[in-house]
């Protein structure tokens, strides 16, 4: 299965649309969002995709975010998500605290750890854990990007949002 990975959209609606186009064109089976949607209006465009996510440190109205997730049949797990996909145990944590991120990666409990927060692309193995940060979908002053994870090969592809 191909999983779409996204983080740090920060209310950038046009980049969100570009990211969702990538996910739909590539027919991802699941989208994992590592937080910092910021506003609840960022959730409805995910409708029709299998979305699971966590909160980031800049997410505002969490009650309304939860409601918007529920409206489209998606799952928001609070600050931490553990899920299993095709035999892989995947953790999703925004990455607000570097010590927690490192502990999750070094624990040996997860095959994959998806993070955000730093706005920098990461694809590295730490112990047995593949650590992935798709970069920032917002882009800020740098490159806007998402990532794709193939659950069979554990290969990661970064896609720049042009």
From TrEMBL:
InterPro entries: Calcineurin-like_PHP_lpxH, Metallo-depent_PP-like, MetalloPDE_YfcE-like, MPP_YfcE, PdiEstase_YfcE_CS, Phosphodiesterase_MJ0936/Vps29. CDD domains: MPP_YfcE (cd00841). One of its GO terms (molecular function) is metal ion binding. The keyword Repressor does not apply. Residues 1-154 form the Calcineurin-like phosphoesterase domain. It comes from the Bacteria. Its cofactor is a divalent metal cation. Keywords: Hydrolase, Metal-binding. Its EC number is 3.1.4.-. The keyword tRNA processing does not apply. Belongs to the metallophosphoesterase superfamily. YfcE family. This is Phosphoesterase. It comes from Gracilimonas mengyeensis.
